[in-house]
Fold Heme NO-binding domain-containing protein.
Amino acid sequence: MHEFASRAIEKFLHDEAIHRVEAGLLSPGQMLQDAAAQSGKPLDELTEDLGAWLVQQHEIWRLLRFCGSDFLDFLLHLDELPERIRLIADDVDVPDIALSRSADGLVWVTVSGGPPGWDALLAGLLRAMADDYGTLCVITRGPEGICIDVSDSAFAEARTFHLSSRARPA
């Protein structure tokens, strides 16, 4: 797990011009902790930024967009994400993800198992995916999990997605 995660974190930190480390010298968690201290950003905030950055990576974005036709569909299939991640990186320690909906229409995401920080990473990923789908929502993290309050699922135009990377818009 360390090699895949370390390379992704190293690229993120390089792209964000935050911190430079040599691959393999520090664990992924230590890399983020050092970068947070160096940048003056709280670790959770930096980890959320990493989640949003991951969505910008084309291969990861395609894997995520394949999970749903709109943001709500994406959320409803979020519990499948650990298995999808294992398809491309079987050595990543991915936690279990569970969803629930409250009577007032809020979607709750809970993360169990896996290394610390996954809730922050997932919150950043969810924010970026909501933007990608053109959905206006409020995403907050708390002790109960990640709360998603969707205000407008068609707030903006969604980014175009085709199943085939060779497909061209008509």
Q: What stands out?
A: The mean pLDDT is 82. The two ends are 41 Å apart (CA to CA). The first strand starts at residue 96 and ends at 101.
